[in-house]
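thread from #wetlab-drylab

HS: before we spend reagent money on co-crystallization trials with cytidine-5'-monophosphate, can we at least see a predicted complex? here's what I'd submit
DV: go for it
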Amino acid sequence: MNLNQKAAPIQIALDGTPASGKSTVGTMLADRLACDFLDTGLMYRAMTYLALENSLSLDDSDALGVLAEATSFSVHQGPESSWRLMVNDRDISNRLHSEDINRDVSQVAAVPQVRRALVRKQREIASQRSTVMAGQDIGTVVLVNAPVKIYLNASVATRAARRTRDTSGNSEGHRYEVVLSSIKRRSEFDTNRVDSALRPADDAIVIATDDLTADEVVEKVLSYISTKLNRTGNLGMTGKRTA
Ligand code: C5P
């Protein structure tokens, strides 16, 4: 299926709880749909990184908003279908999952001025090319008219176990208990945020991924997308990108 063969960009909203597999599934989906992938969580993480780098107070909403407005973002495809987010033309991807960022990102993401700026930038990116956009408010706020909305969830224990496994052996690796408490705290904070709280859109399909592999989730989603777009014959279901 090649979404970029369509006359106008098609947007897939992929929301879910922290560490529910959005970026794994989103990257695989973008590959199968031959479209772009944007992980908006990285944008909030990047704002947190820049705020800490510039020694901004996380209570100074106006300063955080000005910083968000002034920051530029673009997505680029890396090797083996990976996607890189460039922040002010810098690739800081491997600094965005540190314990400091995990601790502070939900606070930064709750600032309305930051959300306003980032939502505008996310819509701009989505208007240019067909995109799978992962986040927490894509279906409810950013792309309310997206023709396909997916919401991934899993128990907090499953999410923590997967994140521990996926990061073990690299510099982001932490013990299960540390990961569990960080994910729990973020999930609670994000769900209770006043502005754009984490929740599934009314028209989203909710998929519990506890007992599914990433491949199984992707197949489920692809079948939902083809039904939803009702264009299977037109787009084909061959998989890999051709461009
Ligand atoms: O997806 P990830 O867990 O990397 O997101 C990090 C944090 O960014 C979330 O816990 C949430 O606070 C914030 N976020 C958000 N809205 C989005 C994406 C992420 O508030 N669309």
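DV: The radius of gyration is 17 Å.
HS: ok that's useful, forwarding to the group
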